Amino acid sequence: MNDTITAKREESETVIEFDHVNWKYADTEIPALREIDFKVNRGEFIGIIGVNDSGKTSLCRLCNGLIPHSFTGELSGNVRIEGEDVRNTQTARLAKRSGLVFPDPEAQLSQLTVFDELAFGPANLGLPKEEIIETVNKVLHLMDLDSMKSRSPYTLSGGEQQRVAIASVLAMNPALLVLDEPTSNLDPDGTKKIFQTMKDLNQNEGITVLLVEHEIELLAEYATRIIVLNQGKKLLDGTPREVFSKIDIFHQIGIHVPQMTQVSESAREDYGLWPNQQDPLTLSEMIDLLNL
Fold first, then answer.
1. Per residue in 73-93, pLDDT tens?
2. Is residue 279 included in any domain, yes or no?
3. Is the pTM of the predicted complex or chain greater than 0.70?
């Protein structure tokens, strides 16, 4: 009996699973994804990195059923979201489980006010009006958007629009929040705020986060797990410290490791400093290392 209970608990803790997944768009010869195989467990904050055309966006599209329902191509292997196969599940049903935020927030905005934007998804799910209002007000407060609820989304700054886009997805109460380069059009301050928001949602609200980003330093600081894609394949998968220690691999594929890690590695190779210390990932870790 204990074994059965454990098995059920483990199954329920898997939010999304990629089981030897291959995907090739109909108008291309080279697969966008090849033998992708990993699970995302509830409560994880996973950063996805890779050079352009490494398969990151295709991976995001699989997370909410855009592939294969909205794109033509060849899919093999299985993608299961909370146990449901994306092939056999309508995208509207998948939207309750996995929400996707695009790089350009305006591509996701369509309503006259911020409040209406957040209410749009739950209304399409057929939820009662009272429940929609309660949910929207909760998410407005959670995302610090209360003062903007009557404004047009198109009058907001880029960072504010991105928060509205994230909030509109959260209003659907998904088990998984997937973000495809959400800070690509933001300044450093806006970028840091988005990362901090993701950390708060992950740690305080229990939201599982899958974040595609180029901001290596911030991923090293905020993510609990890093997956590196290269030419459509999963190249590395582990904690930030485990992954970013593979400096030679990063050099080969053309991605830099966190700046503090590079500094530490250079100091060790050029001057013999800190021979027995692990490389720092963040500025605070570098300061601790200097104080040894």
1. 999 999 999 999 999 998 888
2. yes
3. yes
